[in-house]
């Protein structure tokens, strides 16, 4: 069975690029265009990996992580989270990791690097 990944990215072109790239690799993808939609999907589904953009409308990626990590349900609370961000200063990365992200990739990134990172995360 294909691994299920949620991509939460407010830039439509980038979200489509990531989605297309990962679908070609055989992953089952859900998409969200803002943090609120992402959190709603996390509440309704089980994911092997959640990929969040840092700066999104409604709720930032950081706020989504904090809500996930506070969750009562361990299967949701313990989901793998990969943060994508143009905010790549050490302070920003530390803030993201402290909030509960498992992995961080700076924008811009290569699709190949993303595929490799996801493969490592999901042990494929």
TrEMBL record:
Listed PROSITE patterns: RESPONSE_REGULATORY (PS50110)
Alphabetized GO MF terms: DNA binding; kinase activity
Superkingdom field: Bacteria
CDD domains: REC_hyHK_CKI1_RcsC-like
A UniProt-annotated Pfam family: Response_reg
Annotated ranges, domain Response regulatory: 4-122
Entries under InterPro entries matching the protein: Bact_response_regulator (IPR050595), CheY-like_superfamily (IPR011006), Sig_transdc_resp-reg_receiver (IPR001789)
Name assigned to this protein: Histidine kinase
Organism: Mesobacillus campisalis
